Amino acid sequence: MIHFDHAGVQYDGAAAPVLRDVRLRVEEGELCLVIGHTGSGKSTLLAAINGLVPHFTGGTLTGRVLAGGRDTARFRPRELADVVGMVGQDPLAGFVTDTVEEELAYTMEQLAIDPAAMRARLEETLDLLGIAELRHRALRTLSGGQQQRVAIGAALTAHPRILVLDEPTSALDPASAEDVLAAITRLVHDLGVTVVLAEHRLERVLPYADRVAWLPGDGTVTAGDPAAVVSQAGVVPPVVELGRLAGWDPLPLSVRDARRRAPTLRSQLPGTPPVAHRCAHTDRDAPPALTARGIVVRYGPLIAVRGVDLTLRRGESTALMGRNGSGKSSLLWAVQGSGRRSAGRVSVAGAAADPADLPPAAARRLVGLVPQTPADLLYLDTVAAELAQADRDAHDARDAHNARDVHNARDVHDARDRSAGARGRNAADGRGEAVTARAILDDIAPGISPGMHPRDLSAGQQLALVLAVQLAAAPAVILLDEPTRGLDYQAKAGLTAVLDRLAARGHAIVVATHDVEFAARACDRVIVMAEGEIVTDGPAATALTASPTFAPQVAKILAPLPYLTVAQVAAALDPVPAP
Amino acid sequence: MSAVTGQALPAARRRHPAASGGGRLPRALHPVAWWIWACALATAASRTSNPLLLLLIFAVVGVVVTARRTDAPWARGYRFYLGMALAVIAIRILFRVVFESGVSPGDLIVFRLPSIPTPAWYAGVQIGGPVSLQAILSATLDGARLACLLCCVGAANTLANPKRALRVLPGALYELGVAVTVALSVAPQLVESVQRVRRARRLRGAGGRGLRALRAIAIPVLHDSLERSLRLAAGMDSRGYGRTGSATAASRRLTATLMLAGLAGLCIGAYGLLDTTVPRAAGLGGFAAGSALCVAGLALGGRRVSRSRYRPDPWRWPEWAVVGCGLATAVALCLNAGYNPAALNPGLSPLQWPSLPLLPAAAILVAALAALAAPPPPTAIGAGR
After folding, report:
1. Domain limits for position A172
2. Per-residue pLDDT averaged across B164-172, rounded?
3. Which of A17, A576, B25, B350 is the most exposed place for a label (fewest CB within 10 A)?
4. Closest approach of chain B CAs to the CA of A421, in angstroms?
5. Residues A115, A132: Cα–Cα separation, whole Å
């Protein structure tokens, strides 16, 4: 169905080709999963299938790419619209019309399909994707999962034989992601559509894949049987990691397969894990770093946050979870003081005033927030300029702060002292030298060239840059709004390490995330929100094992044993002496 | 059988209160019908400066909009048009008071503004001076007429989904329609981006003013919108937008030639009709030839586009009725027959209460019948959230 025949792509002015000598065959009715790090050429590979590369993006295509028997060199994307359906990462950006029904009809209108057939197909598609009740809704009012399903539907109404999806679930909460994936697998199984899918969180998709194409990053593509390719690739989901650890062969790819093998492993493991899922730095003796009482956020009739109380401790890293629109972002913004807050008080350790009552420059020294689209904060031409500006801002704010003489010691330095064993406040350090943003960035993500344009950085690097900018103001509390969006395994591991170090220095951290595997690795505490209220608040070990939706794969496989990570299993197995 | 229907009907009525009136099914009227109706009313309004008639037109437009608008986002904008109409009247009066207060002998002076002398080379414009009641009144009426036109356009925009209206463009102009649709959707997205970036800027501790703030807001917003438009373009391309169908290069060239010649003909015709020194026949001829060429070009261009339309708006008797109501009003006010034409534009000197000419008033009331002729608007279930 799809055939890459010694295909290569080189963009104009690039030193090396993005893809070279790609030989890949995807047969009819297969689900092919494309994996690889950010920047390895996944998007280029996908866009080459319907001719967007090179017709739309420019660049040179060598070799041949056939989609449904048509050579993409001769057919433009619009002429392949009846063969290849394309769904992007951000469905909202690709919508042309404004209601669900019109959007679904758009492709068919372009293909001049008979009105009667159009009507019938549209009804079928609405049912197939379970979006019939949304048909008259405006696209902007839909949730992320619904938008993604509409985007898939809009591509499907043309009855393409190939469907290409570029990270369709990266912005979705676990339940919506399941809905979208269920819809995709249904297409593969019931309609025989050939699906090519790029995805960072492979643990979700791997069980359904018939073929995996791995881009190691040098422009080549290794494709083949999922188990074989995945074990070759560096990136593996926890289920595979666990399978390797337990020596299962063939490697299980789905929780179901693994669970059938697990009874023996479960019987070997002690009832309580010998080590915690992560090394906790929570300081239970110190006064709380932040206390919020009765936070309410309302937008007109909509109540986004409904009287939430929140206490954050130093050195504690908290995952804030819940479906899209459950009020996570609103809560973070309200706590930081920059967002809307209709009622409630926030007090930060060492500060007399509520951050919402302070000018922004002072508020960010108490609570730092990294927004969902970190690039919103970047406006200068180079990384170096951004970092210098961050230092100037922090310096100005510090001067203003000291002039007002509010009793707020430099928390980071304070925390560093504690971690070094020197408890108590060092007055001299209170207004002492600052850590430069550059030093923080090198600590978080070493090797970012100062001359680069911030927009040319990868998603993970941009996040690191914004985190460094925010940390330059040395806030005691750091809030991150969905930082894992669009990050690959490596970048996520990097972020986990960074958060770990920040926690060790005494920062209180809150991470809003949909990624349960990330939460299991990076967080001590889990808060789940629904309808603007906190429904679960507890240690990660209990909160993540209690609910099937928010359980990481290892917990699902080993339930009822409360294990969260493969490392815990390894630690439990390792010291077992031979009988 | 009848017992079953008898039970089912009230239940259905309870669910759709809008449907109960006249038992007609709610549906959206063809957007072109609303536009013709509104343009006809605007024509009528431009013919008169009688305050009573203008007020009547305002009232008719208000009634029809209230009765037949949906609860869609674009339908909530009528208040905005009303505000703009009031602003137009206010500005008109202000300008009249400040700049041109030529006073004729019989005028009633209301107050005097300090007069600012203008240099000799700038004669003709007078700033300040005595302000007469007649001047204020005539400015009010002028403004009211303009405001009335604005309200008619606003009504059309409120009653007909502007995007659906674009869908009825002939096939050859489809690309233009899509460009306008996309441009329309960019504005709210830009506003959203600006709000988001401004809010995010506070996180860096910076205020929202000054040149640096402008740069800090503009650059991320521009990057954002550029990226978004590229993604939209890629999406539209992969969804088949701009498929050329069976057009050959020769037919495309012929279409372009026809369209250009037609437009030139229209320009010449318009000039001929407006310039009194040109014989009227020449103007009419040019106009007709231009129109014919344009129609031919559109038809030929439309043939090369292979595209179908999902659920096209039907054109049935309510559409004819609404168009008829509007045109009747326009014709009655343009014909100057059956009533004293002077009653449409009553003089201000001597000052007197204007009389209400019966036939034009009745004709304007006919336009209000559109509210009854049009079917009830569909209730968008869950569209608002």
Report:
1. 2-235
2. 74
3. B350
4. 32
5. 19
